[in-house]
Amino acid sequence: MAVNPEEVAKAFVNFYYSTFDSSRPGLAPLYRDNSSLTFEGQQHVGVQAIVGKLSNLPFQQVQHRPSTIDAQFSDPSVGTILVAVTGQLLVDQEVNPLNFTQVFTLVPSAGSYFVFNGALPRGVWVGKGGDLSGLTRHILTF
């Protein structure tokens, strides 16, 4: 049966953000020693560095709400899939959601996929109480 990149991406995104929101250390099996995550101009390489970064974010609670998931093969000869996600997230007691964008490259391995690399935005701009004149920059240090 042929692999459908959209189906793989949807299943991956559901699992990734559910795990991220409930137990960030649980993301470790999705990465390998050669995996990388780039954010704010810094690259984190390897399972320990990536999970360490994700586990030490400056917030306790987070809820991701993906709204778009786009996927396509980046190298169909080996089944590598490029996944782009946009959506909103809530952190801690914040009532105004923040917009986010995240990109992953998924590589097949032993009947499943691992995250070879990923990139996150440098920051998110949000208005306090819906007033765009008081924009503040929230840096999410993924």
Brief overview, please?
This protein is an alpha+beta fold and 142 residues long. Helix content is 19%, strand content 51%.
Task: Walk me through the topology.
Layout: H1 5-22, E1 31-39, E2 42-45, H2 47-55, E3 62-75, E4 80-91, E5 98-109, E6 112-119, E7 124-128, E8 131-138
Parallel strand pairs: 1-6
Antiparallel strand pairs: 1-2, 3-4, 4-5, 5-6, 7-8
Protein name: NTF2-related export protein
Keywords: Cytoplasm, Nucleus, Protein transport, Transport
Subcellular location: Cytoplasm; Nucleus
Overall mean pLDDT: 84
Name the strands of the widest sheet in spatial order.
2-1-6-5-4-3
Tell me the series of helices and strands, N- to C-terminal. HEEHEEEEEE
| Helical content band | 10-25%
Tell me about the largest β-sheet.
6 strands, mixed
Strand count:
8
Per the principal axes of the C-alpha atoms, what is the gross shape?
globular
State the name of the first-level CATH class: Alpha Beta
Task: Predict the CATH topology.
Answer: Nuclear Transport Factor 2, Chain: A
From the 3D coordinates, which CATH architecture would you assign? Roll
Structural class: alpha+beta
Using only C-alpha atoms, the radius of gyration works out to 16 Å
Number of domain modules: 1
Number of helices in the DSSP assignment: 2
Task: Name the beta content range.
Answer: over 45%
Report the end-to-end length measured between terminal Cα atoms. Answer: 36 Å
Low-confidence stretches: 124-142
